[in-house]
């Protein structure tokens, strides 16, 4: 299975490339192909030091979409609309959104678009044959890249298509100690996305770092 | 410290009475005093079997408010407005809301009132000198009464007054293995309340029961 990462040179994107490329063919996308190639080189070196093999290719965001079976949108909420406006070819793809619309004042709040969630907004921007799936929303960005540490968290997955949901849950369960949970249809993604500002508040007000969540 | 439970004869209220009365003076309130007295008798017997002492008193909801330092609103969201409309005397009290506005269709959604959350709505209904604090929102109702089981969960606490917040967090930390986390001001309670429909969806779609949450 080929996993394309749009925004694959950002913090979360690079961390996802590190965690996923030992198990899947990972296609790292960037606005500038040269940056994607550089990120892949860095990831390969990091994984080699750990004695791990990987499958990585650095390309443009557009090619990452074109080549992949599953496309992960590893971009901040504010970049979603401008990025999707430059890309085509999402027909028949599974599109994974870990995107959380968050605002910060003296604390963090959930600030969804009029569609109700980033996930529903993204669904509205893509062709009907694309299947949007919310996943990986609540994992601290820093943790993705810390290969020495297990990702021991629960991951809520929302999607309207059972087949696509199962595929994404399988990917989740293949990353470190992540455990995927079916959290219902895509319309329920808002209450998954909104856990992230809660975790950021917990971290901020209790002097903690990189707080994650487990369903127990 | 005296803890009054408005709605103390409901499932969560009775469970809270069981868990809190070995450590605090608990005043169980009900619309009908006779029901509150009966609940206290049942709780006393249950705790006696476990060899535990307790301090319990069954009264009306109004007297539970009047006598308590901390008042817990252990009532469903739909009962909040009619119940608060019948009660007075909240001046200078700490009022704890574990209330979650939830709707159910084929899945559970967060359905807050125009104020943004049950917590903010409750704050608007009470006198200014009352201090509203959101806590205990994400604990499965059934678990409160299962004394054989530890409550091994995280509890997010939102409040605008640091002193009141510390008092409530201390109460939380005195119940089983609950661990309190400062989750910011009361305005941030919406993203605490909305975790509950997520946990209900996780339970429903993964054939689990009484799912709770831990911040890790």
TrEMBL record, chains A, B:
It comes from the Archaea. Pfam families: F420_oxidored. InterPro entries: NpdG (IPR010185), P5C_Rdtase_cat_N (IPR028939), STEAP_metalloreductase (IPR051267). Keywords: Oxidoreductase. The keyword Protein biosynthesis does not apply. The keyword Protein biosynthesis does not apply. Residues 2-101 form the Pyrroline-5-carboxylate reductase catalytic N-terminal domain. This is NADPH-dependent F420 reductase. It comes from Methanoculleus chikugoensis.
């Amino acid at each position: 299975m080929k996993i394309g990462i749009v925004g694959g040179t950002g913090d979360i994107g690079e961390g996802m490339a590190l965690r996923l490329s030992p198990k899947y063919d990972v296609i790292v996308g960037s606005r500038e192909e040269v940056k994607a190639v550089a990120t892949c080189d860095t990831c390969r070196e990091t994984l080699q030091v750990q004695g791990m093999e990987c499958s990585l290719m650095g390309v443009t965001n557009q090619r990452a979409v074109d080549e992949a079976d599953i496309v992960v949108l590893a971009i901040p909420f504010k970049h979603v609309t401008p990025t999707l406006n430059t890309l085509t070819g999402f027909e028949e793809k599974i599109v994974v959104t870990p995107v959380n619309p968050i605002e910060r004042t003296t604390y963090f709040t959930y600030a969804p678009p009029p569609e109700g969630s980033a996930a529903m907004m993204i669904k509205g921007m893509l062709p009907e044959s694309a299947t949007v799936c919310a996943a990986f929303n609540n994992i601290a960005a820093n943790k993705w890249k810390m290969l020495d540490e297990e990702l021991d968290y629960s991951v809520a997955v929302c999607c309207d298509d059972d087949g696509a949901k199962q595929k994404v849950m399988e990917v989740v369960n293949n990353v470190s100690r992540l455990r995927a949970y079916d959290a219902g249809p895509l319309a329920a993604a808002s209450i998954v996305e909104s856990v992230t500002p809660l975790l950021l508040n917990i971290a901020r007000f209790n002097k903690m770092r990189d707080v994650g969540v487990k369903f127990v």
